[in-house]
Amino acid sequence: MMEATEYETQRMQAYRAELVQRIAGTITEDGSIEPLAGLHIYRATVPLQPTHGVLQPSFCVVAQGSKEVLLGDSIYRYDPFHYLLATIELPTVGRVMEASKERPYFSMRLELDPAIVSSVMIEVGMSPSPRSTDVRAVDVDTLDAKLLDAVLRLVRLLDAPAEVPILMPLITREIVYRLLMGDQGSRLRHLTMLGGYTPDIARAIERLRHDFNQPLRIEQLASELGMSVSGFHHHFKAVTAMSPLQFQKRLRLQEARRLMLGEDLDAASAAYRVGYQDASHFNREYKSVFGVPPMRDVQRLREAASVFPG
User: Fold this and answer.
1) Shared domain check, 221 and 184
2) Do 235 and 161 share a domain, yes or no?
3) Does residue 220 sit in the same domain as residue 135?
4) What is the full DSSP assignment across 128-178?
5) How many domains does the chain have?
6) What is the pLDDT of residues 79-116, one digit of tens each?
7) Which among 142, 264, 291, 305 is least buried, having the fewest CB atoms inside 10 angstroms?
8) Which residue range is the domain that position 81 belongs to?
């Protein structure tokens, strides 16, 4: 009789092989698609340069290849054996590490709805996290057989559109349930904004995102959250891996990049639009983050043939 561990290994291998096959049949060119609402599929046949973007609360799985996500000074690498869980919308840098024409990079990202997480928590009688905890906004953990099975059943729906309205909500809830019951459950619970310092930091993040082009008033923001300035800095960095000023800078530079690419603004105009008063200061900070001056970066992006987010 086959031992349980050997059976489990073979089952996981079969799941991974089918996941690759189904994603490969869904996306045939490099890039990204959203075949179902909230479900994003990615493909790349070459390793990609670091891509700056905003990662929404999501559950991310690599079917083939590997990827790194950089948040502040922290690096999170995941592959077919590990998943990435993001619980707060944050500016990140992503890079596909392993990809080739023979073995393309395939991955999927499922957006996480706080209302669904809260509903599942209530259904299983799960209490909110302790008030005194900080929770990292991004982390990586092992993808076990039960979670992978649910992921595969979700991807199978791509070939069964008539079943999507009934089964996708059920499978999504199952994925949320298994995440809540796993090692990352305490992090996911913070997505519901029920407890801990993380919800306070989420409020600060939302304020910074909304007012990114305004002067940053740390004292006022900390006071509104009922924190000291030093306490606010500590909890903000514990969650985001960045200081509030670094976070605001990333938001400003990413929006400036979008304006130059999407609205054909020159560097000086984009700088002023996002809150910089000194164009030369903007140019220095832009180069420090993206590696090249603004307009050279825009030209490079327009010429690139295979850059995609996520």
Assistant:
1) no
2) no
3) no
4) PPPTT----SEEEEE--HHHHHHHHHHHHGGG-GGGHHHHHHHHHHHHHHH
5) 3
6) 999 999 998 888 888 999 999 999 999 999 999 998 89
7) 305
8) 4-192
